[in-house]
């Protein structure tokens, strides 16, 4: 994909949060944004010190330069307004998230961001090993998705409803994004999930919110779901 001219601005704290990440249920690689002009990595606050162990890998990867970030085909289309890019070059994936969201630890997930005030409004990314090479190797997509929302994503007391499903191919890789609602007796949550397979890994990105807020925020969260991409590592 052709690389367009990028306007690159960033604060050192945001750069630290996106370049120096490592956590979840396993060690992770470098995260990055392409909106950078002056690259300085500062780990000084109490919050950063808590995460210093998670971020330590970045200190050993000095080869990650501004040129390599700009040159990434994942960012060639440019970042939409009011979003930031999260790129994990070590684990082979990227996605956008709203710029006012903050990073947090979500158990058994590789990365996660949430709204500062509505914490159930969040995005998280996980992956597991697989011997499959494409999502279609899992079976017919409608059957795969139905099984996911009814047997994997939902709790025993929840009812799962599939609202929509969309497949797409980007740079020769197949993705499936589906919209669903999980309803329990006193609560309902709506979400988009996007699945993909690459690098011997089965990736899943889920972004969602309280069902009562879904109509208002659905389009914003759809941008996140559609932005998810995987690449070779």
UniProtKB/TrEMBL annotation:
A GO cellular component annotation in the UniProt record: chloroplast thylakoid membrane
Chief location bin: plastid
Protein name (Swiss-Prot/TrEMBL): PsbP C-terminal domain-containing protein
InterPro entries in the cross-refs: Mog1/PsbP_a/b/a-sand, PsbP_C
PANTHER family found in the cross-reference section: PHOTOSYNTHETIC NDH SUBUNIT OF LUMENAL LOCATION 1, CHLOROPLASTIC, PTHR31407
Subcellular location: Plastid, Chloroplast thylakoid membrane
The organism's place on the tree of life at top rank: Eukaryota
Pfam family, one: PsbP
TM ranges: none
Domain PsbP C-terminal: 82-230
């Amino acid at each position: 994909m052709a690389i367009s001219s990028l306007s690159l601005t960033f604060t050192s704290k945001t750069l630290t949060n996106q370049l120096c990440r490592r956590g979840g249920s396993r060690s992770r690689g470098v995260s990055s944004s392409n909106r950078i002009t002056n690259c300085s990595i500062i780990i000084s606050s109490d919050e950063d010190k808590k995460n210093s162990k998670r971020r330590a890998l970045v200190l050993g990867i000095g080869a990650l330069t501004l040129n390599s970030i700009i040159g990434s085909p994942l960012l060639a289309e440019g970042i939409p307004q009011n979003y930031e890019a999260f790129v994990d070059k070590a684990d082979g994936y990227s996605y956008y998230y709203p710029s006012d969201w903050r990073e947090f630890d979500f158990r058994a997930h590789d990365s996660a961001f949430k709204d500062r005030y509505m914490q159930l409004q969040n995005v998280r990314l996980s992956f597991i090993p697989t011997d499959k090479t494409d999502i279609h190797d899992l079976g017919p997509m409608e059957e795969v998705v139905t099984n996911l929302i009814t047997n994997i994503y939902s709790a025993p007391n929840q009812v799962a409803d599939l609202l929509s499903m969309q497949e797409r191919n980007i740079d020769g890789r197949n993705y499936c994004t589906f919209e669903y609602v999980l309803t329990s007796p006193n609560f309902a949550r709506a979400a988009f999930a996007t699945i993909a397979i690459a690098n011997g890994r089965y990736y899943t990105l889920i972004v969602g919110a309280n069902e009562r807020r879904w109509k208002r925020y659905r389009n914003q969260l759809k941008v996140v779901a559609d932005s998810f991409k995987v690449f070779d590592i």
